[in-house]
């Protein structure tokens, strides 16, 4: 099994789902992980579990809508382990609805978490990466941005915006300092449906997850694959979805 020995990785949205699975897998493969999320008791419990299994883990309470929280997350990695090799932006919400519902509050929430939260991560990590001479930005995007479905216009827009930022950063990083990887999951069994305010859409999403969803560990393996490549190899985009998903 490939080793990530010595890698220092900070992860947002690490209290559940893809973020948690990524933290556990990377720690298992030898990385030191810094778990960031709003639920302090949850990330503390996950970190304790990782340490009990022989891994290295620290925690930092993070609300990705707050730029200072991302700076603190990055600083935790640098202060604890001496540097930060990778930032995994995994935090995201999906309170989807038809545009005609005019749910402007949740439109703003998706922009703040999915897009602005990722940008806060870029702003926090990029100076550290440049000072070190190397760094890797990994963001969990979504296949929803590849084919826009009804009720998902704003959610997909935030994900497409994130993909655009990644491509822009890649083209600005031809000096070889910063690598970028955008990973787009399909139906993954996570808590994402909990963030949906429309009961009908929440029920439909859970039904689809139950019927075809694959474990969050499948996405975690894609993150590990991208990170473990030598620094002169960049895995720009990966789509991870159930084989049966149309």
TrEMBL record:
Q: Which domain of life is it from?
A: Bacteria
Supply the InterPro entries for this chain: NAD(P)-bd_dom_sf, Sc_DH/Rdtase_CS, SDR_fam
Which Pfam families does the UniProt record give?
adh_short
- Recorded coiled-coil stretches: none
Record has Oxidoreductase as a keyword? yes
Which one of the record's GO molecular function terms can you name? oxidoreductase activity, acting on the CH-OH group of donors, NAD or NADP as acceptor
Q: Which PROSITE patterns match?
A: ADH_SHORT (PS00061)
- Kindly state which keywords UniProt assigns to this record, in alphabetical order: Oxidoreductase
Q: Can you tell me which family this protein belongs to?
A: Belongs to the short-chain dehydrogenases/reductases (SDR) family.
Kindly provide the name given to this protein in its UniProt entry.
Answer: Oxidoreductase
């Amino acid at each position: 099994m490939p080793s990530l020995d010595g890698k220092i990785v900070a992860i947002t949205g690490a209290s559940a789902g893809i973020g948690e699975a990524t933290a556990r897998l990377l720690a298992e493969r030898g990385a030191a992980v810094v778990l960031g999320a709003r639920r302090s008791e949850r990330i503390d419990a996950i970190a304790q579990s990782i340490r009990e299994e022989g891994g290295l883990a620290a925690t930092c309470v993070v609300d990705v809508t707050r730029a200072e929280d991302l700076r603190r997350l990055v600083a935790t990695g640098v202060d604890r382990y001496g540097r930060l090799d990778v930032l995994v932006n995994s935090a995201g919400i999906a309170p989807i609805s038809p545009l005609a519902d005019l749910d402007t509050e949740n439109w703003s929430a998706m922009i703040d978490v999915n897009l602005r939260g990722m940008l806060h991560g870029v702003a926090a990590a990029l100076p550290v990466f440049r000072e070190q001479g190397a760094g890797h930005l990994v963001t969990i995007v979504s296949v929803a941005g590849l084919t826009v479905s009804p009720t998902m216009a704003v959610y997909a827009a935030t994900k497409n915006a994130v993909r655009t930022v990644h491509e822009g950063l890649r083209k600005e990083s031809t000096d070889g300092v910063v690598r970028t990887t955008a990973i787009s999951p399909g139906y993954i069994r996570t808590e994402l449906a909990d963030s949906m305010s429309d009961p009908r859409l929440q029920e439909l999403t859970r039904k689809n997850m139950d019927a075809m969803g694959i474990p969050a560990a499948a996405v975690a393996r894609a993150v590990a694959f991208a990170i473990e490549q030598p620094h002169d190899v960049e895995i720009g985009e990966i789509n991870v979805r159930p084989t049966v998903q149309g």
